Each structure stands twice: as C-alpha cells, then as structure tokens.
Amino acid sequence: MTAQKTKNEISVVQQLRAALGSPAEKVLSHSRVRVSKWFAAEASLIQWGEMDSPLGTLFAAVNQRGLCSLDFGRQEAEFLGRFDPRARLEKNPNAVHRVLAQLSEYFAGNRSSFNLPVDISQLTPFQRSVLDVTSRIAPGQVWTYHRIAEELGRPRSSRPVGQALAHNPIPIVIPCHRVIASDGSLGGYSGGSGLKAKRWLLRLEGAM
Length: 208
What we know:
CATH class of one domain: Mainly Alpha
CATH superfamily of one domain: Winged helix-like DNA-binding domain superfamily/Winged helix DNA-binding domain
Strand order of the largest sheet: 3-2-1-4
Helix content: 40-55%
CATH topology of one domain: Arc Repressor Mutant, subunit A
Low-confidence stretches: 30-41
Structural class: alpha/beta
CATH architecture of one domain: Orthogonal Bundle
C-alpha cells in the first residue's frame, strides 16, 4: 500500500512538471545575462592580494572606502571565506600595492605608523570606538584593556573591550597588539598566528 502511494505521488509530480514545462534555454540564458549585469553593477567589489611576511603569508583586501581586511597565519580560502558572499572578490595585486608596500617597510623596521584609508563600517559602534582609541597607541607603548575602557568612559568594560579587539579586521594597521592585560600578560590577539605574532610585533616595536 505504501509503495503504491509513493508511486502515485511520483506520478503526480511528473504530471505537474510536464504540465508546467521548463523555461526555454533562450529564456534561461537571458536571465543569466541580467543577473551577471546586476552583479557587476551592484555587488560591492573587494580586491585583494598577498605577500610573504615574517608572520607567514599575509593577505590584505580593499574596497572602495579603503583597507577592509588584513590577516596572516591562515589559508587563502579561510581569509576569502569571511567576506559577504554577495561581494565580488577579485585578486588584484595593484589594488593593494600601497598597503603591502607600507607593511613591508614596517616589517623592515623603516616605518612605525601607517598612512592608509581604512573601512571598519561593518563593525558595531562600540567596536569602532574601541578601535579608534586603539589607533592612538604609539609604537613601543602598551595600554591595558582597562585603560581603553577608561578612555571610553566605561571603566568596567574591560571584557567587552577585549571582545571588540578580537573582531579587529585589520590587525597591525589598527594596533590591537599594543593592548595587554592589567597583570602584564599578553591577553588575546585577533591575528591568525595568535599570541606568537603579538609577541613578535611588540618585540619589533621595542615594547618587549
């Protein structure tokens, strides 16, 4: 009885498909062209490139507003997988040349700060405010999570500050490695190589 019922259901589905028909190939082709044109015109463009660094392969991505993502110690697929699937991803070394050039100077000890437009608009207002304060920490200095919280007028928010720093999309350029715990320990680090990278960056800058 069950087998007969299943046969009848399959038959009904087949009859419906036959009655409704499938779109002609010409219609499908036209639809694909329209979608492609929309995607090219409306989807946000993110261009990216990579370089070898003392911390491993480093990836950087820019959009129309500026540097929007930077990471190292991860695989390419993992780096690209963080972006909005609706965005157009394009590998373009020329688009990130300025970013990578300044990072090369930094790693060589010939640069201590960056002159780059950045885009952190994808973050919450609180996260952006934490990163804005973090950007004021000078090379060779370290602040505590508590000090960041105090600068924000929220002295009891050390933990949320740490959580905000964990979402820093452009480490090094926004120097979250310069923020440590009140007991002098390193705390956490958003870069892909973790605390090993944080320790290396602080040594490079003379803070350790």
